Structures are given as structure tokens and as C-alpha cells.
Amino acid sequence: MPYLYADPLECTGCRICELLCSFYHERVLNPKKARLRVVRLEPGIDTPIACRHCEKPRCVEVCPVEAIKVVRKTGMSFIDERKCVGCRLCAEACPYGAIFLHPDKQVAIKCTLCGLCVKHCPVQCLKIVEEEKIVGLQV
Amino acid sequence: MRFPYKGYAGQILRVNLIKQTVKKQALTKKMARGYIGGSGFAARMLYDEIDPGIDPLGPENKIFMGTGPLTGTFWPSSGRYMFAAKSPLTGIWGESHSGGHLGPELKYAGYDAVIVEGRAEKPVYLRIENEEVEIRDASHLWGKDTHETTRTLHEDIDKEAQIACIGPAGENLVRYASIITNLYRAAGRAGIGAVMGSKKLKAIAVRGTRSVEVADLDRFMELSEEAHWRILSHPQAQAMSRYGTPLLVGYKQTIGELPTKNHQTGVFPNAEALSAETIRKNYWAKTRSCFACRTMCKKINTSRTGPYAGTLCEGPEYETIMAFGTNCYNADYPSILYANLLCDKYGLDTISTGCTIAFLMECYENGIINKRDVEGTDLSWGKPDAIIALIHKIAKREGIGNFLAEGSYRAAEKIGKGAEKYALHVKKMEISGQDGRTHRSIGLSHATASRGADHLRSLVTVDQLGYEEVAARRWGSDKLPDVCDPYTEKWKALVVKTTEDVYAVRDCLVQCWYCVSWPPVLWIEDFANILPAATGEPSFGKIDELLLIGSRIVNLERCFNAREGITRKDDSLPERFLKEPMPDGPGKGQVVNLKVMLDEYYELRGWSLESGIPKKETLEKLGLHQEAGKLEAMGKLSRNCVV
Description:
The structure holds two protein chains of two kinds.
Chain A: E1 2-6, H1 16-26, E2 37-41, E3 45-49, H2 58-62, E4 68-70, E5 77-79, H3 89-93, E6 100-101, E7 108-109, H4 116-120, E8 126-130
Antiparallel strand pairs in A: 1-8, 2-3, 4-5, 6-7
Chain B: E1 11-16, E2 21-26, H1 29-35, H2 38-49, E3 63-66, E4 81-86, E5 93-98, H3 102-109, E6 113-117, E7 124-129, E8 132-137, H4 146-156, E9 162-165, H5 168-171, E10 179-181, E11 185-187, H6 192-198, E12 201-207, H7 217-232, H8 235-243, H9 247-255, H10 276-282, E13 284-288, E14 298-302, E15 312-314, H11 318-324, H12 333-346, H13 350-365, H14 384-396, H15 401-404, H16 408-415, E16 425-426, E17 429-430, H17 440-448, H18 468-475, H19 492-509, H20 524-535, H21 543-563, H22 575-578, H23 594-605, H24 616-621, H25 625-633
Parallel strand pairs in B: 1-6, 7-12
Antiparallel strand pairs in B: 1-2, 3-4, 3-6, 4-5, 7-8, 9-10, 9-12, 10-11, 13-14, 14-15, 16-17
């Protein structure tokens, strides 16, 4: 399953990715509406956290209204906002903390791998990777 | 009614620590139109609300914390914010800007600014989360350094909250205490941390989930994208991305302007040990950025050997390397790194701290003080341990630290015996890492800036060799070559005055110094393009209108200072720059002829040549009729004004 990855030693914590994510998805400037978060682990580490599109997604298992579905072809999982009731069980279940609650709509949001943040990262540290290739990635 | 301009949140928070109340005030269109934001709002509100003569550490002082219409947007390097108050160091206008991530968060919470009044009986902190604003008990935080405070608040409230706080130095009312955000970003100068300490306000914690709206989103994003690209492709900005401000160590050494031994000279024998390349190679760990910035000039450095092994922090910046390094004749980088971390944790302005220590070292060199006066510390030039020991003492006000915590000017008064001439200050603020002898215009900037010996409000960078094209564009090719000659007073008043007006607008947005002031990437034309796209107000698209506002703010701050008694006699420089020829380097033999630049600057500003106070006509042209009236009533506008 492909997912968004960034080297925590390259990321500068500028959060341009968060800002642009909210712009591309909703035409607003609001990092809390981004589908990824840059988490600061002081001292010094900044790491963009985004949905890993797990092979056995816990979020899909726990969702009580079956709002998260796996697309069989790619193995990626997507949230159907119309079905989501905002119970946050998925956010609690996610081992990466990669599911967020939309501050206005009160539904779960997570990275859909549109890839637009990748283009704008000032240090080009955001990448979409396939897990098979992680072995060859320089860290 | 919704605020008519976009970009702004449209709300100001007013916090009264005596009554323990929080009020939400609407931002007025008049305020936005006349003062843009940030610095401008601060000048207007504090001039109106603070009476002259009040004690900066008393309950009548107020702290303004503010953002601008671009804060929280995609415009490059717009993620900063600023503080203002009457300064306990200088007794006049105090202002300090900071990077990090709190400014945007304040806009996301729905506020353009916060104004804090009064004084709490017991330590408190302010918690802001969208509409919820509380004054909370901070007794469990009092005494903690800024890092512990931030960590504790993250656990107590929310790990995504942005925190600005003071450390022990602010609590102990060290007159140049700073406010620290995100552990390492400092609102350093003018001692606003001490004002927070005097109000028993330990921290401000902000979390916001709203959006910042702009008037024409597509045009805004297009212009921002283009500005980002210009920064990305500028070679000097690229150098900044790689090395950060330590780049300036090498530049300054080359032109002989690297302050050494309390600004005695501008050539440091071991500049190589503190150069950007040396630091990058031996100490650099990672690069960091402030919000929405592509310049990414922040560096995390660490030292792995020696007595300070294990130190890891963002910085030190060029000014800090100057303050604890070259100016104290110290070439040991790890000790400077550690000194930087201590200042972050204690909440101390590195420039004032380091330059006060350098002042003491020069007193020691000249036998004005001896080992007995400083608890046995050997204060010969260049001893890293002595520098570190003094930082602890200053923050805790122990021993000699209690004198030094008052700033070099007051410490010199107490010490006497001729110490005064070694306290290099303007209006009681320590001189920063520049020297007017090798760069005339900074001499004028230091002398005239509203907050004292400041290096950000009007420091011109393009009146030097290598920037002839930019200088020609800004002031006309007829001014070359003198305008780019750093050793002549010619044209310098013009460049300082015009630059000061542009910077005043920059400080309203609140935009970073880098990539505006230096390297010269963005300028007033870019502000005139982006502001209408952000706010929807067409008059912000006229450069003349923006510059008028900039001039208005400079004059308003001058009125604030005039009310406190500032006149021409305070627009001066230490004798070192006026009378002692530069001993070494390309600038050898140079001194600053301040009088000729000051006369010209006052002419350009429309200020009285005798008193340095704005003339009535000047103020009225800027719409400052009431301010002119007040100065007239105080007898400051008459020809017989005592100077």
C-alpha cells in the first residue's frame, strides 16, 4: 500500500504541507483542516504524520457505521464523510495518530494521497512510497 | 457585524489581570486602514492607553501581542508575531518580534491581537482556545525555565498548543528578559519578558481551529507562490537556507565589522572557528523553519565533545555568536551554543546579556573592577566559563549579576570610576552586532531607532558594495557610487529614512526581516500587491499610501518617546564610534560623523533640528493632530524646547 512518508531529519516543520492540504481539499487556509499533521518531538524532530493505508486497517475494523472502506485494487482505505458520525473510534484506534477530526464538519479526515503536498515541500522531504521500496530508501 | 476586511480575524482580546476579566473587542476599520496591523496597532494602542512617566514594571504598563493581516496565510515568511510595551530597560518604546508558530495560531483562534493590562496577585497564565479564554493559576509553573514550562503546559492543555512564556529571568525582572516561543524562538530585546514577569503572567497558550480568509483566494495564492519561488531561486536566500544567520560572521569579518572586545574593533582573529562553514561541518544537526517559511534559516546545532557536550538547541544566531563570542573575544563555539541554550531556558536577550558581559570584561581589563568585585571570577577576555557563570548570575540576580541585570548603562552608573564610557548603548539599550564606523548608515539607525540601539527597524543592507543595482533602483543611479560607499555619510540619511518607512510596513504585516531587508527579494511593491488580494482594501495597493502609514507609525513612536523626554541629545552614539578610529581592517581609521547624518535625517523626517521632535506640520500631514496637540501642551514643540 502506498503512503506518504517524510524523513524526520529533513522536515523543517514549516507546515506548508498542512496549509496547502487545507487549500487544495477545501479552499481554506487552516492547518486544522489538513489531512496530515507535522508533529514536533522536541528537541529537534519534526515528522509529518499521514495515513499509512495499513494492510489490516484498525480504523476500518472499529468503525461502527462502516464509513471507512478499502478499495480492493490499491488496498487504500477512504472515509465516506456522508456516513461518518464523528465518534472518533477510528482516531483512537489508529496506531499512528493519523486520523483527525474536522473542526467544523466533525467528521474524520485522513490522507487520501493526492500528492499535492509533495510538490510544494521546500526541502522535498515528502514522498509517496510503496512499502517494498522502503528498504532501499536512504535514512 | 462582520469585519469588512479579510485577512484579519476582526477581534482583539483585552485581558485585565487585576479584575481577572477577559473582553473581546471588535477591531475597527479605522484602525486597520490607518495602521495595517502588528507594529502599527501596537503603536496606536499603546500611545493611547499608556500615560507618560509610568513605571514599566508597574501595573499601568500594558503588553501588546499582535499579528497582521497576512499572519497564518501562505504568504512567505508571514508566520511571525510581535510584542510591545514600555520597556523596563530603556523607559521608552519597547518592541520585539518573534518567529515560531504562535502568531498564526492566534489568528486561527480568531484574534488579531491581545492586550494585557494590570497585574495579577499570584502567577497566572493565559489560555486561549478559539472562543474560550481563561486566566489560569500558574503557581506550579513559577520558577520553572521556559522549556519545563512549555512541556508542562503541553501536558496540561494540549500538545498542539503554541506556548509563549518567560523563564526565571523574566520572573526576576531582569531588565532585558525575553519571551520564548517554541523553546528557541525569542522576542529578545527591550525586556518585555520582565514586563510579563512584573504582571505575574507566566505564559500565553494558544490553540485555534479556524481559518484565515483572504479576499481573492486565487490571486493571493498565485502571488504567494510566485514570491515563494523568488525566494527559493535567490542565491543569497539559498545560502541562508544552508547556513542561517551565522553566514554574517564571514561577511562581517570581510568588511571589518565583526564586533570584537566590546566593539573596540571589527576584526576578530579567529573568525574561522565561528564561521558558517565550520559550524555546518562540525555542529549542525538539522534545519528548522518558522511557519510557512521557505528560507528555513533556523539550524539545530549540537556539540558532542568538551565540557558542554550534549548541548542541543536551535541557534545561535549571528547576534548571539557576536554577543558571547567575538565581542567577548571568545572563539569557543560549544560554549556559545551552551550560552544560547541557557538564554533560551532563562529567557534572556542574548544581545544585551552578551554585550553587558563584554562591558564588564572591558571594565576588568582597565582595572575598574577586579576579581573581588565579581566573586573571584577571572574576567579576562575570552574565558568561556566566566561568560557562562555570569549568565546564571544575571538570570538569578546573584552577586554581580544583580548589577548586570539592570543593563550595562545602569550597571556602569553604579560601578562608576569611568565605567560609563564602556557601556555601549543608545537610550540605555546595548548596541547590537554592527559598527557605524564600517557602515555609516547603521550608525544613524542605532542613534535614531525608536527602541534604542536597534538593528532591525531601519538597518539598511543594500547601501554596500555588491548591491549597486538594488540601490540604483531604490534611490536612483545618480546616487552611485556614494550611496554604496559605507565610509561616507553622503545619502545615508535618505536611505535610512526611506528604508525605515518600508520596514515599518513590513512590521505591520508581520513579515520576517529575512528576504525583505536581506537578501533583497521582497519589497514594498510586493506588499502593495499582496495586501489588496488579502484584505480586499484597494488603498493598500498604493505604495504611497503604505509609505504614509509607515511614516505615521515611525512618527507616532517618536511622539511616544518625546512624551517620555527623548530629544535630539538621546539620538547619539557612544564615543567609541564617534571618536575612536577603527583600529583594524578595511575600515581602519574610520569614525562616524553623526551630526551631519542626523541633521539630514531630521530634515527628511520633518523634525525640529534643535530638539529632534516632529514638527506640528509633519504630524498633521500624517493625521496625528491630537498627538501634535499633546506635544504642544507639553511645551515640546516650541523653539525654546529644552534639549
